[in-house]
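Entry 14. Structure prediction run on the chain below.
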Amino acid sequence: HRIWRYDLETFGAEAKPEQLLTQRHFGRLNNNGGLESLELLPPSGPEREPRILAITEDTLDPRGHIKGFIADRHDIAWFGLVARQPYSPTDMALLPNGDLLLLERRYSPLAGVGMQMRLVRGDEIARDAVVDGEVLVDLGQRYSIDNMEGMAVRQDGNGDLIIYLISDDNFNPLQRTLLLMFRLEMTEAEHRLAPAEGTLKLPRNPEADGSSAGASGSEEAEPEPR
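Output returned:
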């Protein structure tokens, strides 16, 4: 697993990947259940760059929770997300007030596909914390859904949240690529939520300015496999 940055604003389609984080920072993750959801958080202080929030699909910590982390440069702060079986996280979006909307999906030959969205309080995510969240919607096979894996959120002129979901058909003729749109109506008090200032951009590689490349956090990272 690795996270790369592409400077599209400067180089457009000619942008080359800049390595930010690799396996040595994450430690051991499941082969097909590693990093799945990524989001950017505001900087932790002045003159700092945005932080990277990541949640794995089904890699569990020793407590049985889904592993996630916040990376402030190469400082890795691990936390746990309560697993709500049979669902697995696939994407997330940062809301204007700093909370997170989490998209999860499930599949079994008997029950078919399913999806749910969880609202996680942003101020609860911290090093060694365990977070859960309120389930806003839980949909099963009788709805027009598929393998829902992508999510984006914007706020409309009324202050309500418009949520876009997209499915991945895996090049399988039995699956579909669907684009769904939901509206989350906000209360009058919630309309006054302050939006994030400007557009967050991925930080640059700390090694480029001589910063230490060593991993830190609540658990020791393992060497990158060769």
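The mean pLDDT is 84.
Filed with the rest of this week's runs.
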